[in-house]
Amino acid sequence: MNEKLIIETLEEKTELKEKVYQNTLQTFSNLKKEVAIFSAFMSKQLGSKGEVLLKENGAFEIEFHFGGEVLIFSMHTDIFNFDDSHFIHQSDYLKHDNKRSYCGVIKVYNFLSDSFKYNRNNDLGYLIARMFINIENHYFVEGKRQLGFLYNDFENAIIDETSIKAVVESCVLYATEFDLLVPPFNEVKEITVYQKIEQMGNASIKTGKRLGFQFQADSDHISY
Q1: How high is the pLDDT of residue 5?
Q2: Phi, psi of 190 (to 5 degrees)
Q3: Contact call for residues 74 and 59 (beta carbons, < 8 A)
Q4: Which of 37, 87, 131, 144 has most Cβ atoms within 10 angstroms of its Cβ?
């Protein structure tokens, strides 16, 4: 009896997760197309005023460079569920079918272009958004500022080219407005000999947009 139940459960979960994975993979493929279109548009509009670069790092990651910024879109290959306290479990949409809570995830990180240009491996990047897609192609986004409240209608929102384009544009807008701030003096007043030796020729002292500050003050739904 238990053996039969185990096999049935495994088969059901495997089928469910494979379907969610395929939906997420298709979404990521469409996202790459939208970023490529947006990259070409920005390159044409900016011309020589700003470097725009799109780079693919394997099947599950792309780098989008623009205006001194880098957005990295990265698809996770695993499928996730959510803690019972998560807001999505409060909707009738999930109460009618709990399989809808299983999601694939695409993460968006923001880095500085110079971090890559000068090989500053100690520099910080920030997770600014996570896009979740389920078995029915419903989606929501957790993220910073507008990314945290514009895309949270999981019960009704279906992922499509229009919604992907909107999320990409919101990520670009957030990164553009998310300025590099001078860290507090006391946070950077000390330096080791090793750090100074490393710094020679490549300025490898750690840099980040909010280094020494509380990034949570940006009003978000992501904890760091």
Answers
A1: 85
A2: -115, 145
A3: no
A4: 131
* DSSP category for residue 179: P
Q: Which phi and psi (to 5°) does residue 89 adopt? A: -75, -10
Q: Residue ranges per domain, the chain?
A: 2-218
Three-state DSSP at 10 gives: helix
Per-residue confidence (pLDDT) for residue 217, from 0 to 100: 38
Give the closest residue to 75 by CA, choosing from 88, 59, 90, 87.
59
CA distance 151 to 99: 21
Element spanning 141, H or E: strand 139-143
Q: 194-218 b/e with 16+ CB inside 10 Å = b? A: eeeebeeeeebeebbbbbeeebeeb
Segment 34-66, tens digit of pLDDT: 999 999 999 998 877 778 999 999 999 999 999
Classify strands 139-143 and 69-75 as parallel, antiparallel or unpaired. Answer: unpaired
Long-range contacts: 41-49, Cβ < 8 Å, 24+? 42/66
Tokens matching residue 212: 């020494």
Give the pTM: 0.84
Q: Between the CA atoms of 192, 197, 198 and 201, what dihedral angle is there, to the nearest 10 degrees?
A: 140
Give the closest residue to 155 by CA, choosing from 128, 178, 137, 143: 137
Per the CB < 8 A criterion, the answer to whether 130 and 92 are in contact is no
For residue 2, count other CB atoms closer than 10 A to its CB: 6
Confidence (pLDDT) at 219:
47
CA distance 176 to 172: 6
Low-confidence ranges of the chain (pLDDT < 70): 1, 180-183, 187-189, 191, 195-206, 208-224
- Count other Cβ atoms within 10 Å, centred on residue 74: 17
